[in-house]
Amino acid sequence: MPQFLDGIARVAVFLVGAWIVYGTVLSAIKTFVLPRSVNTRITNAVFSGIRWLFDLRQRKMTTYEQRDQHMALYAPVALLALPVAWLTLVVLGYTLIYWSVGVGTILDAFRISGSSLFTLGFAMDARTQLLVIEFTEAGLGMILIALLIAYLPTMYSAFAKRETLVNLLDVRAGSPPSPVTLIVRLHDISGLERLTELWRNWELWFVDLEESHTTFMPLVFFRSPNGNRSWITSAGAILDTASLANAVLDIPHEPQADLTIRAGFLALRQIADYFGFAYNPDPKPTDPISITKEEFLAVVEELRAANVPLKPDLEQAWRDYAGWRVNYDSVLLDLARLTMAPYAQWISDRSMPRKKR
What is the pTM of this model? Predict the structure, then answer.
């Protein structure tokens, strides 16, 4: 009877070990290989744990500059901690498997597991069935490391592509980016007809953003080289500029601006979906937004003072602007809070609690 119970226990331990290995490999595939946004528990646990440690440390920091320099390390540290967590789980899973098939003590099983995973070869078992298990573990170890090596250049390439337009926006819209500054500079330098080119470029940027920041989730937390720049504040500035252009500027309506706004809020919603942020997928134009009518009219007066051509009906202009902003208002602010974005008007200066589904 005791031998029967020992056999059942070993089968149970084998299944637990195999489940750990399977879950770890599946997490790596979903994170590194699968070309779509998929949440995995291991990835979430690693990034959440590292974020908790970083948040704990930055409570003592008094300036944004200190927090920005501190948080610039968050994504790289969490990214490098991810394969460490995977390899640790693989060692644990195979340790249970080796013990369950009769490899001495747990310590002996751990020694063979570590030797096999890192292909050190200092501990082996001559039995054929164990050699097969050792070879599979060694192969998994090399695959996980190879995935990371292939993953990093691709991700940094996407980061560099993202930052190109972010840096160009600094030239056109100031630092931090402001829709008023962008509109006034374009009006003074080249005329508002250049807005069409701007919308086309940023529509493509939003499409790339959606694909890269859901496939490579750590990119969301990679900060710009300049502490006053951020992908989320740049996105918000462009979306507000397009919304103001549609609502306020007395120029022929440009359908490309509509497409840019739509590409923008769809991209931000896809990223927000990954993190489980709640938002209304089909808001009404009359739903409340974080911008007040007084703030809107103050911006209109700034544009008027710069001799920008404006529509005469400001009441209708306010309703039109609010009708555009409502599509991206909540996800924009939630992502700005999540990424601890630098100050930007109507974006990271808003106070909004983070909502979870």
Answer: 0.86
